[in-house]
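Lay summary. Proteins are chains of building blocks that fold into shapes, and those shapes determine what they do. In this project we predict the shape from the chain. Here is one chain we studied, written as its sequence of building blocks.
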Amino acid sequence: MGVHRRGDPRGRQEPEVNADPVISGRTKVSAVFGDPVEHSMSPAMHNAAYAALGLDRVYIAYRVTPENLRAALDAIRALGILGVNLTVPHKEAAARMIKDLSAEAKLLRAVNCVINVGGKLRGDNTDARGLERDLRDLGVSLRSSTAIVIGAGGAAASSILTSIRMGAARIVVANRTRSRASKLVRRFASHRVKLTATGLEALTDAAILSIAAIVINATPMGLTTRSFARLAYESTPSGCFFYDTIYRAEPTPFLAPAIALGRRHADGAGMLINQGELAFRLFNRL
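And here is the predicted shape, written in a compact code that computers can read:
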């Protein structure tokens, strides 16, 4: 899988996959829906867990385009699929399509896992919990600090909630469309934290960057593009942590300049593993 986790002190090992899984007419199925989805680590993770636990189950990746999402969700019930992880670009759309949502999915207005409960679909979101666990494992402290979140979608909402839970005093949400950032910020208005919505110009504002404890990329830039928005990395403190919620075999366009400057950093592989473990328990009633 070759996930880039340079600078990760945990030395996380990639799960091994059972080379000869036995699939029968009794094998139960779980899956991930995304577009693109070919890069997903989820099948390797879940199938390794099934093999280790001796469960007659298999996890499959399906490329589902946005226009086919509703039909794909209906197929979960029709085919008796145990549960499905959702990745880019389906999390927000699914939250509008599924009636039964967990409290966290309602707050984030995004769903990253769909559980088939006796033929009824329940949407949950384990992203914020997975991100928080990863940041704490990496030794990141946000207590009374400033966090910069890039984006205004489901991953950005999870990043804001994580920053709040980790005690950030100020969160700057920077998005290409400022109105979307403002709308997202209003959703968290009841929390005791200073929230600021800006355009991407904040990423070159030395006054903001100079006090940042963390910069989180919560956009698909770098996964669906070869470049990243202009960001004045050199204006951040030497201890600023750069976290990309996406992951690739090589450093993402967001992380590469931070690595060149010697900044602490991580991609989203740890977040994926943590949220995947939580989803695995939900799918398999563990």
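What the prediction tells us: The CA atoms of residues 31 and 60 lie 5 Å apart.
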